[in-house]
Amino acid sequence: MTVMWDNNGVRVPVTVLQLENCEVTANIVYKRPNQTEYHAVQLGASDRPSRTTTHQMKGHFRKAKVSPKYIVKEFPVTPDAHVPVGTTLSAVHFVPGQYVDVIANSIGKGFQGTMKRWNFKGLRASHGVSVSHRSAGATGAHQDPGRVWPGKKMAGRLGGERITVQNLTVMRVDSQLDLIFLKGAVPGIDDAQVLIRDAKKKLVSVAQAHQANGEYEKVLPKGVDDLPFPAGTKEMARNLPAIIEAPSKRVTSPFVPRE
Description:
Layout: E1 2-5, E2 11-18, E3 23-31, E4 37-47, H1 55-64, E5 69-76, E6 99-105, E7 110-112, H2 114-118, E8 156-158, E9 162-174, E10 179-183, E11 195-198, H3 200-212, H4 234-237, E12 243-245
Antiparallel strand pairs: 1-2, 2-10, 3-4, 4-5, 6-9, 6-11, 7-8, 9-10, 9-12
């Protein structure tokens, strides 16, 4: 993580993410049993050597005319939002000021006790407790049911799980280096692979509700005029400034005394 300052001089902690040659590898159209259609765009990111790629995936990438990738994921889209195969996406796909969700595997912490894993209070520090201050205490019931209920909070492996951090603000994008500056922390170790999508709660759901009510001026977050459609590509980035920052959400400067 690092920090940046907005145009009002407010210090904002940010996490810097980078797109590694993110390209469209396929457009998916699937008809469900109920005759509705599922549309998705498949993306590949982070180039990998051909010698470590399976023959099946080599053929898939060869058909798309892109280099082999470490990561291949698909994103559901509307029928009119398919992107031509082989298109390279840019950091300008995310607009400064919008909200995003970041998904990754959290840092694994190994086998941990109940106090660290579940925030248990623990036993007393003195007065009758002998060398079991951090133990979980009793875990069973009485003769009935005579067992430990499934799902009981006990010691075990902590971390290493798929975590979603929601509603992070995009503070800045750098189209030359394909950098995305997000306000706050994201899950995972340093240099981990993460998945970024439009925020389901604070962007997509809110936009759908406002559109259903006819409040079209409230569909996008405050300070965001438009979103790239169907995607922010390298060609689009050439016509935009190299660095774009989100406007400050503060109305006044924190350095000006209040009257």
